[in-house]
Amino acid sequence: MKVICEICKKEFEYPIEQIKHRHREVELDLVPTNFWSIKDYLPEFEIKISKDGTIIPPKVRRKSKLKAGNTPMIKYSDNVYLKDESKNPTGSFKDRGMENLMNEIIAHGKDKVAVVSCGSGAIATIEYAKEYNIKSIVFVHKDVSKSSLKLISKADKVYFSDTFIQSYEDYMKYSLTHNDVFWGFLNTNISYMLGLRTMAYEIVEQLKKAPDVVIIPCGSGMDIVAQNLAFREMFESGKIDKIPKIGVVEIIGGNPIEQGYMNNVEDKLYIIDKPVESKTILSNDTCFNYKKIYDMAKRDEAFFLSVNDEMIDDFISSHPEYEATYDYTSMSAMAAVEKYSKTNGNDTVVAVLTCKNRIGG
Ligand SMILES: [Zn+2]
User: Fold this and answer.
1) Which residues contact 6 (CB under 8 A, 6 or more apart)?
2) Full-model pTM
3) Domain ranges for the chain
C-alpha cells in the first residue's frame, strides 16, 4: 500500500513507522496532525459483502475472536435511523479498527503498544492487545470517568496526567524516546482508519441505498474521515449514486473545525483559546483531523451540526431510555438529529451512536 504525506508530497510504502516522519510546523506541542492520504491500497484492505449482506472486514493475518461490526440499525422515525455502534465487542466503533492495528504492530515486530485516550480508544486497544499477547501502555488524564477507569486499569501500565492536553504531551514525550513500543496513535494510524470503514458499507447494505446524511460525533475525527473514504469508494465503484454528506457534531464553543472553516483558516491548525466545558468528550481546542474534515467541507461532503449540553439534556429529558444504553457523547448525535430535522425533515438520515454508557457496566 502506498501512502502520501500531503505536506512534503513524498510517497511511502505502508506500513511505515509514522512517528519517524514529522512536520513540526503542523504539530501541537509535539502531537502531529493527520496529513496522510492513501494512494492505493492492497486488496487485503478491501471490504467484502457476503450473500446475506454481512460485511466482511479487511483480510488480516491474525483474526480476532472479538467480532466487531455488523451492528444493528434501528428505525427512529420515518426517515431517521440509528446505527448502534455500542453493540461492538468493547462497546464502541473503535473496535472496527483494532484487528488492523494489532496486525500492524505484529508486522513491525513489536509486542508493546502505547495509546493516549480518554476512554473507548484505550479500552478497545487493551482488550484486543490482550488477545494478541501485546502489552498495552495507556496515557489518560486524571479526571477520566470512574467507569472507564475500571476498564483502563486492565492495561499493563497506565500513566496519569493532570489535564487532557498534558496527557497528549506526556504520551508524545514517552513515544519519541521508546523505540521498542509501537506508536498506537489512533488519530493518524492508517490501517486502524481503514478498519473503521466497514460501518459505511453496513449502512448502505442495511438501507439498500445511500442515505442523504450521516451524523457522527467528531472527537478526533478519524471516524468521519474513514466513513467519507468508504462512501467515496462505493460511489466511485457505482454501488451508490451519491456520496452521503456527513454532519460533523462538535460542541458550540469547542468546535475548532467549524470555527476554522467559517474563518477560512486553511493552511494551519485552528486553535480555540478556551473551549467551553462540556459533559461530552467533544469540546476541543483543536482536532488532529482538522485538515481532512476541512477539505471534506470544501468538497461539500461534510457540514457542521454543532450542539451544546443544553440541547443534549433536552433530548435526554424527552427520551430518558437512551441514557441507559448510550454514553453522553453519543447523545450529541441525537441532539444534532433534532437540530437538523427541524429544517430538513424529508432527508434520509443515519445518526451514529458511537459508544455505550459504561456507568454501572
Ligand atoms: Zn512529509
Assistant:
1) 35, 36, 37, 291
2) 0.95
3) 66-92+191-353
